[in-house]
Structure formats: C-alpha cells, structure tokens
Amino acid sequence: MALGTNAQTAVEVTRSGGFGFVGAALSTPEILKQDFAFIRTSFPNLEPNKPLPVGYGFVGWLLDKNEEAGKRMIDIVIENGVQAIWLAFGNDIGRWVDYVRSSPANARAHRDRRPLIFVQVTSVEEALVAANEWKVDVIVAQGTEAGGHGGSATPSTFVLLSEILAALPQDGTAPPVIAAGGMANGTQVAAYLTLGAAGAVLGTRFLLTPESPYTDAQKAALLAARTAGPCATVRTLALDYAGDTAYWPVHINGRGIRNKIVDDVEAGVDHATVQARCKVATEVGDQSYMIVWAGQGVALMNEIKPIKDVMAELHADLVKQLQKSQRLLKD
C-alpha cells in the first residue's frame, strides 16, 4: 500500500486500537525523516526507550534493485525505533530478514528489542520457509481477494490460512499467523479469528478515509465499485502496464478496479498508449482510466469516514459476531 498509506494513517490506526503500517516501498530518506518527526509528535507520552507503535513495510524486489539504498532505508527505520518491519514480494526475502536482524542500526537504536519481522506469504511453501528457516515473528497469509499485489495463483484467504495453520507445528512453537485479503468489516475478521488466525489485516477499507493519500477521484471510484459487486475488481498486470511497474516476480500480479485500462490491455492496445492515456486520465481525474488498487471487500464499503470511526465500527462488529458465536454453544 505504498500509495495508499502514510505516517498519518498508521498513527490513526494505532491510536484507535489497531497497529498501523506505512508502505515504504516508494519512500526516500527525506520522506522518512518527515514521517518520524510526525510520528514522534503524535505519541508525546511514549517513553524514550519504547519502540514507536507503528510498522514499516518494504517490497523485496525493490530492495534488490538497489541494495545499498534498500539497506539505508531499513537502517533509518530501525534507528527510529519502529516496532515492526514487514517484508513481501521478493525472490530472496530471506536475505532481507537476515539484514533486518544484523543491521548495525540495531546497535545505534539503543533499544532492548529489535523490530518484529512480519513476512507476507502467498503459499504454504512460503509460510513453512518463513517459519522454519527464517524464524520470522509473524506470518501474514494473503489470499487472492486482497487488493494490490499478491500471488497470481494463490487460493482464497480462508483456504490459504487453513492450509498454513494445518502445516505448521501445533505445539506452540510456530509464529502467529494473521489473515489478509478481502476483509471489509468486523464480522469477517471474527470469522478468521475463529478459524485460528492470530489477527487480521485490512487495507482497502482504510483507503476510504479522509486520512488516506488516495485522491478524491480514486476514492470515488472505490465507492462506485460497490454497485458492480464481485466483478468490480480483477487480478491482472494491466494496471502495472499502465503505470510502468510490471517488474514484479513472475508469480505476482495485482488486484484493482476493473476499468478501461484492463479492457484496452486485454484488447491488445500497446502499453505505451495505455500509459499515455492513464497519465492524462490521472491528471484530469477521469476514474474510468486511472489506477485504483482495491480488494474484493470493496463491494461491502459504502462511505468515507475517519479512521477512528472505521476502527470503532470494526471493533463493534467483531465483538458482536464473537458474542453471537458463543451463543451457538449454548443452543
């Protein structure tokens, strides 16, 4: 969610009872400096040696593309004392897991605890490597319903989570697994918790907030997608062709709003033409030809509201559903 999150969204999620991440794939050292100045002022009562209650996410293949720049970005994040680092979408994520642990920035951070390492997986095989070889702190099981990038052949979140939980040791030694993909409300979160997830990740729901850096036109496209139902989104590389970002690992593509970009790519329009049309549409706010990443849960979203209200609604729905489930045991 490099273009859908920022320091403000992460802070507001954490303040409201969740744990906020910033997608830092396209950040720079200058942006990070501004981020951490804002984050520190947002938690004025935080004890000096305590980690900042937010996380930062990085894309593996982008780190690989410029190794020294990638290491510098990770060092800056560690030096500023974040509580967690999230890694995804790389052909050699393990080397970046090792770097987070061995970074000299850990010594400079003057903290007792290194950042927790979250690794996003799209298959059982990836989960087993993350758990058994990399010894990560948290596994994020991302199903096909997820917005943005993910596995092109990944099963549903329900199936993937079930398979991963069944494959991991049952003796309490496995890292916690959290579910990601397609969730829009607390009822869905409750379902994954009862399935065995240690938590849940929501992304698209926070795009429909005043704090999200998504443009008004993109947010309008998300709201309009509700009327299209399950067909509103599609897994494709068309949006990457339009944005000239089709450099992901071979098993990765993206899910976004289906629009004329997808129609043109499927019809064989050359990518340069698609990119030119997309650039113009983005400049004028033409929703029919702009890149809008979104998960399948967008069909259940119908309004823009502040993050604190989204979090309160999610919590209320979650508690209500879990209480309802408990009543089933009494009947």
TrEMBL record:
Pfam families: NMO
SUPFAM superfamilies xref list: Inosine monophosphate dehydrogenase (IMPDH)
Keyword annotations from UniProtKB, A to Z: Flavoprotein, FMN, Oxidoreductase
Family annotation (InterPro entries): Aldolase_TIM, NMO
Keyword Nucleus included in the entry's annotation: no
Record GO terms (molecular function): nitronate monooxygenase activity
Keyword Oxidoreductase found: yes
Protein name, as recorded: Uncharacterized protein
Source species: Ganoderma sinense ZZ0214-1
